[in-house]
Amino acid sequence: MVIMDINLFRNVRKDYIRLTDMCDTINNRISLIIIVCFILNIYFILVQLFSSLREIESATEKIYFYISFGLLLTRTTCICIFGGGVCEEWRNIGTALMSIQSSAYNIEVKNRVCGTSKQSVVLN
C-alpha cells in the first residue's frame, strides 16, 4: 500500500514530534530513578553472591536464596532490555521512512527523514 496523501505524512510527523517530546520529558523525570534502581540491583546481586559464600544449611534458606537471586537477575536484565528497546524502536521508524517508495516521497517525508536522522530517542 502506497500512501500518497501529504496530510497523512504531516500528521505522522506531528505525532512523532509529540512522542519524542514525551520521551524527553519522561527521560528527564525518571532517568535518575532508573539509574538508582539499576545500581541498587547490582548492589543486591553482589550482596547475594557474598552471602552465598557461607554454607546454607536449611532447605528454606536455599529456596529463598535461589528465588531472590533469580528475581534480582531478572529485574536487572529487564531494565537493560526494556531501556534498549526504546532505542531499537526509534531506529525501526528511521528505517521504515528511509525505505519509502519514490512515488510516495514528498516534503513531509523529507522533513520526517531529516528529523529522525538528527534526533535520537533513548532512555538514559
Characterise this structure.
The protein is mainly α and 124 residues long. It has one domain (6-118). The chain has helices at residues 6-51, 59-98, 107-118. Helix 1 (6-51) packs antiparallel against helix 2, helix 1 (6-51) runs parallel beside helix 3 (107-118) and helix 2 packs across helix 3. The longest helix has 46 residues, at 6-51. The two termini are 36 Å apart.
Q: Give the overall silhouette.
A: elongated
* Span of the ends, CA to CA: 36 Å
Largest sheet: none
Percentage beta strand: under 5%
**How would you state the average pLDDT, rounded?**
76
List segments where confidence is low: pLDDT < 50 over at least 5 consecutive residues. Answer: none
Q: Compute the CA-based radius of gyration.
A: 22 Å
Given helix and strand content, the structural type is: mainly alpha
Count of extended strands: 0
What is the chain-wise order of helices and strands? HHH
Which SSEs are present, and which pair or pack?
Blueprint: H1 6-51, H2 59-98, H3 107-118
